[in-house]
Amino acid sequence: MINESLILETINMIKLYNLDIRTVTLAISLRDCISEDIDVVCEKIYNKITKYAKNLVEYANDLENDYSIPIINKRIAVTPVSILGESCKNPDYVKIAKTLDKAAHDVGVNFVGGFSALVEKGFTKGDELLMESIPEALAVTARLCSSINLASSKAGINMDAVLKMAETIKKAAELTKDRDGIGAAKLVCFCNSANDNPFMAGAYCGFGEPECALNVGVSGPGVVRAAIESMPENADMSELANKIKQIVYKITTTGELVGRKLAKRLDIPFGVIDLSLAPTPAEGDSVAGIFQAMGLEHAGAHGTTAALAMLNDAVKKGGIMASSHVGGLSGAFIPVSEDAGMIEAATNGYLTFDKLEAMTSVCSVGLDMIAIPGDTSTSTIAGIIADEMAIGMINKKTTAVRIIPVVGKGVGDKVIYGGLLGEAPIMPVNRLSSEKFVCRGGRIPAPIHSLNN
Predict the structure, then answer these.
(1) pLDDT tens digits for 63-121?
(2) Which residues pair with 28 in a beta bridge?
(3) Domains 21-191 and 227-442 share a fold
(4) Helix, strand, or coil here: 170?
(5) Residue 242 class from Cβ within 10 Å (0-12 exposed, 13-18 middle, 19+ buried)?
(6) CATH 3.20.70.20 fits domain 21-191
(7) SS3 156
(8) Residue 325: helix, strand or coil by DSSP?
(9) How far is CA 435 from the centre of its chain?
């Protein structure tokens, strides 16, 4: 029997409410590319990526046509690159970055992630060299993304790394100031980073991952908003939550179907499906719009954090019933520049920096794609990062900071990146000094609940 209502519902999700597969991300282990010679490392990296990913874009496009479901981004995530140069007699991480960028270009993907290091407990030689190379690497490449894990609920917060990353963010923005600091827009600091996250800029192939796997990120803020708006205005919170779960179940099923079909064509394992509601600047594709559908005047109103908490939980509950392999970040993203409703809220002053920080205690990630004045001090940026790391550490969740100090611009100005990165107003930050605190260095110890073995 053909259920016409289900067919029409799916068509409406795609055509009217911006349902899409936000990303298919091929995770590739590069651990066998290690060598004492940097040229050999780069050759191995290029050959392995082009071997596994040569058909990724073609097959994804074929599936897009077969099922009429848009697949917006095709991406690659690799082993944290810090380990690849450590054994070299002549380490050159910028050269590795250029190799990754060339491989990504030649196979036709949008981004390659994994120019990364995990330093929550301290640095290795390779970690330090990679972190020092990040600004130049992001300035001379087009598709490369970088992430550093600075903290975890098990290890605490590496404050030396926090300060170092604040300096790195400033340098990355400075080296790309002709493009409004876009280098910093491709760099993210994590607490409790996920090994199988398919979304950029934080995607990498974790140490416990297989040789190769396909991870899928679905999206659909517009679909969720439309579902809520179809309900009676007096529907209570439990009814809203159930409706969100039902619609996310359908979204997840669609993503799993496409992911498994693509993995089979590529002859690699299917990894995970990430349930995250990732917005875009397109009209009607906004997480902030979901808050309005729930009854808030706009994102930033009192009650926004509670609305986000319910949304995030319902997304996870609905998705987990549709797939046995849920992973990544999964929940709701709140990137300022990538969400039309968040852009409007920040521009009109409804959404403050402090409110955004409060919302990160219950969202999928954290302070994401926020533009700040270019003259913001390194110590203030370090304080912002430390606060966000603390939220993740204490709550045993992933949090992140992707912040852009835009050189030459201040509050009242805006930046325009276009595409999925969107645009953002320059938001004010607290001008009180954090310098003496962040310069103490060392490691903030893990909380007592980390002792749970």
Answers:
(1) 988 888 889 899 999 999 999 988 899 899 999 999 999 999 999 999 999 999 999 99
(2) 78, 212
(3) yes
(4) helix
(5) middle
(6) yes
(7) strand
(8) coil
(9) 28
